[in-house]
Write a structure and sequence with these properties.
- The chain has helices at about 15-30, 35, 45-55, 80-90, 100-105, 110-120, 140-150, 155-160, 180-195, 220, 240-255; strands at about 5-10, 40-45, 60-65, 90-95, 125-130, 165, 205-210, 230.
- It has about 260 residues and is of the alpha/beta class.
- It has a single domain, classed as TIM Barrel.
- Helix 1 runs parallel beside helix 11.
- The structure holds 2-phosphoglycolic acid.
Length: about 260
């Protein structure tokens, strides 16, 4: 089944307003028509979302946020709701990143509430799933537990609005990504799980890999049949590196 390839750039707490403007002004002409072949989602910090939305207007690049607060209601000082993200121009929202889990105590139950809030506001969730450092050698229990809980209450139509990132905790912010074999097994596991639970829906869902991706490591990862694209942080803040990753993703698709 044809799945449109996907690239996700999560800028974390980097990229203020002038850096965001300069990135987008350089990246759009660099990436040119490739942005129609590959869905590219840029996730700036909250403070740069508005300027990014203005600069991205009319381009095929898509805007995403890194998190949301599920409410209900408005009385959560300092937090950002799904409807505020939709209002500023986000189409996507990342949910379940390991840094949220590890440093903010986010549970699968909370991620599930965020999924519901995102869908209710018309946002598309980008769900990050991956085993913990401790489960590196036997990841599948972690993956099954996360998927089971974060997708609880969702139906197949809703799953079709999502994208998934297979991102093991131990592969984030290190020198090298996980091995091709490890990545393929993880992505295939997620796809099969979705197929089993939601009547074959996994075959049409984008599942990408994240964790220490670079322009150099990208082509090898992309030879794996269940990898539909890549997510990156460090290499996603430089227009030339991100362009190289997008190019690798587009070329891999031509080869398969
Ligand atoms: P990295 O980060 O690309 O810098 O390894 C990945 C992530 O945290 O999602």
């Amino acid at each position: 089944m044809e799945r449109k390839p996907l690239v996700l750039a999560n800028w974390k707490m980097a990229m203020g307003i002038s850096e965001t403007i300069s990135f987008i002004e350089r990246f759009i002409p660099l990436v040119g028509k490739l942005a129609e072949e590959v869905d590219i989602i840029i996730c700036p910090p909250y403070t740069s979302l508005y300027v990014a939305a203005c600069k991205l207007k009319g381009s095929p690049l898509q805007l995403g946020a890194q998190n949301l607060h599920p409410g209900p209601g408005l009385a959560f000082t300092g937090e950002i709701s799904a409807s505020l993200l939709a209002d500023v121009g986000c189409r996507w929202v990342m949910l379940g990143h390991w840094e949220r889990r590890r440093y903010f105590g986010e549970t699968d139950e909370l991620v599930n509430r965020k999924v519901r809030a995102a869908l209710d506001a018309g946002l598309h969730p980008v769900l990050l799933v991956g085993e913990s450092r401790e489960a590196r050698e036997s990841p599948y229990d972690d993956l099954a537990r996360q998927l089971e809980c974060i997708l609880s209450g969702c139906n197949a139509q809703e799953i079709k609005q999502m994208a998934f990132v297979y991102e093991p905790e131990w592969a984030i912010g290190v020198e090298k990504p996980a091995s091709g074999v490890h990545i393929q097994k993880g992505c295939a596991y997620i796809r099969e799980w979705l197929n089993r639970r939601f009547g074959g829906v996994g075959n049409s869902i984008r599942i990408i890999y994240g964790g220490s991706v670079s322009p150099e490591s990208a082509p090898n990862i992309l030879t794996q049949p269940d990898v539909d694209g890549l997510g990156t942080t460090r290499k996603g803040r430089d227009p030339f590196s991100l362009f190289s990753i997008v190019k690798a993703v587009a070329e891999a698709r031509v080869l398969t």
